[in-house]
Structure formats: structure tokens, C-alpha cells
Hints:
The protein is about 65% helix and about 0% strand. By secondary structure, it is mainly alpha-helical. The longest helix is centred in the N-terminal third of the chain and has 21 residues. The model has no long low-confidence stretch (mean pLDDT about 80).
Amino acid sequence: xxxxxxxxxxxxxxxxxxxxxxxxxxxxxxxRKALAEALEATAAAAxxxxxxxxxxxxxxxxxxxxxxxxxxxxxxxRLDRGxxxxxxxxxxxxxxxxxxxxxxxxALLLKSRITARWxxxxxxxxxERVFACFGEALLCAIEADAFTLIESVSSNLGxxxxxxxxxxxxxxxxxxxxxxEAIRWLLLSEWYRQRHGLAARSLWNLLSACRxxxxxxxxxxxxxxxxxxxxxxxxVRERLWPFGELLGAPRQTPHWHTVTEQLLGDLRAxxxxxxxxxxxxxxxxxxxxxxxxxxxxxxxLPLLRELEELLSAMNRVDRAFFEGELKSLREGLGxx
Length: 336
């Protein structure tokens, strides 16, 4: 709870932090309320450099809420407002953290537009714009010494590499180099989390690494022209040293099942600390890895039943993704 004491900026920052935590727990309604209260509390500070910086971050927070609810057009409209745009306004031009936040979200929205047009594919120009935004966002985050942002942008770069260099083109390549590049970005993100004590290990980073390595595709990707060969866990650890150590499983472990089993254990230990989407994704990936290891669906059935119970509360986009994955597993499709 935010105490109504201290300066307007102190209250605003406290409410902004509360909103960010609420978003991480998928409580978008609570996040919106906290951001609206922060903007109200700091109304008198509008026009000052510090006040404008905080208020811009709150507006960006509202855009992130739109993005999280898959309201991409609404998020883009917020970013296009002159006060937020990096090319306009002193706060946006001279505050590297604000520029990094803006560019990070802009890259994600550009990426979402590409996937919305599939299966028609993406032009090289569109893909280059995404990576240009992420690249500048990373530089701004480094300039701001903002470890949480460096971690976030690195993770997004890993996912975008997977999505746009593999999923958009419908091919993995013969040597797995592109998949290794994507996993390297994810593990760099993980290194920042652990090196600077930002939080416990990221479910998303490690789950994405497992999915990429087994030859899975990101949401809405084109069907592959040829089956992908899974990248063994121990091989990835070796080729991505020293970051491979962050995968957690013992060095000589060939199966990614060990990694997802540990992630599922983390989730079971603190169920209230994880969102519904995180829970569903862990269950799904552990089911995939179980099928790959056992060459049978039988031992994965309890995980799939648990996952199905979560589907009714999801939004349409997420539910369609999980339903497609469940269908692939049950029909013996995919890369099992």
C-alpha cells in the first residue's frame, strides 16, 4: 500500500513501482489504477524535468498495460503522442531510461504487427526496424545503467531472433546457429538478473531456451519446411559457455526435461508468485519435454489436464496458442 505522505514525486514513484509489480502479476486493472493515481498526484509537477520524466513513464506504463492485454493499436496510439515520442520533448530526448522503455515497447509492437500479417511473412525492412529499435533500446539502457532494462531488452532480443529469424522464415538452418544466437541473448538476460540480484531466475528466459532448443516455434510462426533436430542440453551448455552454466541442470545432462522439471518445482513451491500465463507455459513445456524424453504421451497427461483447466480464464489469443499446442501433442504432431 502507498502511504499518502511525502512529496508528490515520492508518491508518484511509489505508485509507479506498485503498478509495475501489479503488471508482472497480470493484475492489469490494479496497475492502471495505480498509474492513474500517480498521474493525478504529480499533476502539479508537469512541466518540470523530473515531473515530466515520471509522468512519461506512467504514460508508458499505461501503454504496457494495453500491450499486455493484446490491445496493440491502443498501445501504439499512446506511444505516438508527442510528449512520449523520443523525437519530441526534453524528457524524452535527454532521459535514456525513458528512451529505452519507449524503444523496447515500440520494437515489441512492430514485432506484433509482423506476426499479425502471417502467414504472408515479413519483409527484411520490417525485421530490420525491429532489431534497430531493440539495439538502440539496449544502448540507452546501458547508458542509463538500468540493469532491469538491459535484462528485459536482452530477453526480447533473444525472443525476436527466434521469432523473426526462424519463425518468420520457416527454417532453422542446418547447424542450429540461429537458435544458439537466440538462446545466447536469453542467457545474457539471465546473467544480468543473477549478477545484479534483480530477481530469481526467469521462467520466461529458461522456458524459451528449452523451446528453442527442442525445435519448437514461437506463437503464430510459419510451419517449418523441414523438421528441426533438437539441440541437446549438454551441447548447448558447452557451445554457450560461460552462459550455459545458467541453465541449471548438471553439465552432462542431455535432456531439457531436467530444466523444465526444476522450473515446475519452483512454480509448485511458490504458486502465488507466478501468473496464470507463467503457470500454463511451464506446464506446456514440461509436457513437451516429457513426451520427447519418454517418446510417449502417457506421463504427460496429468500436466495436460492441469493446463486445460487454466484455458477458460485466458484471453482469446493466448487460449488459441495453447489449444494449438495441446492438439499437436495429442495428435503426435510437432517434433516429438
